[in-house]
Amino acid sequence: xxxxxxxxxxxLGGVIDTVPFAGRFQLIPxxxxxxxxxxxxxxxxxxxxxxxxxxxxxxxxEIRIGVPLPHPLPGFTMFDVAETQALxxxxxGAFDTLPGVYxxxxxxVEQRGLVRTGWAREVYRFVAKDASLNICDVYMDVxxx
Length: 145
Prior knowledge:
- It is built from 2 helices and 8 strands, in the order ββαββββαββ.
- The chain is of the alpha+beta class.
- Strand 7 (114-126) and strand 8 form a beta hairpin.
- The mean pLDDT is 93.
C-alpha cells in the first residue's frame, strides 16, 4: 500500500512540453533528452534530483521536467510546484515497469476514497546503466473525496 505524504512547495527549472497522450511512451524520452542537453549547454555537471511531473488533459499530456536551481538560468523555464497531499511508492528497477506502479497507486486512490487532483510525479533518486539498480519515487496528487 502507498504512503500518504505531504509534499512541500518547490520551484524548479527545466523544460515544459505537451505531447499526445497516445504517443507518450515514444515522446517522453525526447523531453528528457532536451533537459539533459540544456544542463550540458549550461555547464551544469549535476543538479538534482530530476523531477518529472505529468498531467493528462483530454488527449494530451503536459510534461514538466526540472531540477532545483539557485536562480533562473538562460534556457530554463522556471515553474512552481504547489504543496500537495500525494500517495507515494518507491520503485526499484527498470523504468519500463513504472506503469505497474501507477496501476497500484490508482487502485489505492479508489480503495481509500480519495480523488486525483492534478499531477503525477517521478523523482529520480538513482539512475544506472543496470536498470535493476534504478530508484524512483512516484507520487500521485490526491485529496479527500
